[in-house]
Amino acid sequence: MKKKLYRSSTDKKLCGVCAGVANYFGWDSTIVRVIYALLAICTTGFPFVVLYIVLAFIMDEDDGLIDTDANDITKE
User: Fold this and answer.
1) CA 15, CA 1: separation in Å to the nearest integer?
2) Which of 20, 21, 27, 52 is the most exposed place for a label (fewest CB within 10 A)?
3) 3-state SS record for 1-62
4) Distance CA 72, CA 41 (A)
């Protein structure tokens, strides 16, 4: 089955973009948010703000129906 990138509706702070990226790659959403924030601060923020807004518009929201943790073998 082909994976699709969705904005998270359950683990979101603003629009769910960072949580969606984290779910897609199987990473922790907090780590993705910290990396995003550090990159935004180090590059004066503007490119990453634009990227976030663009991704928020083009990524579909998962509507809470997609079990993003179904393939996570680390959870018990």
Assistant:
1) 26
2) 27
3) CCCCCEECCCCCCCCCHHHHHHHHHCCCHHHHHHHHHHHHHHCCCHHHHHHHHHHHHHCEEC
4) 31
Could you tell me the two tokens for 31?
A: 């780590």
Residue type, 71: N
Average per-residue pLDDT for the chain: 78
Is a pLDDT exceeding 60 seen at residue 57?
A: yes
* 3 state SS of 65: coil
Q: pTM for the complete prediction? A: 0.69
CA torsion sign, 31 to 32 to 35 to 38? Answer: negative
Decide: 6 and 60 in contact? Cβ < 8 Å.
yes
Q: Is the pLDDT of residue 68 over 60?
A: no
Return the pLDDT at 18: 87
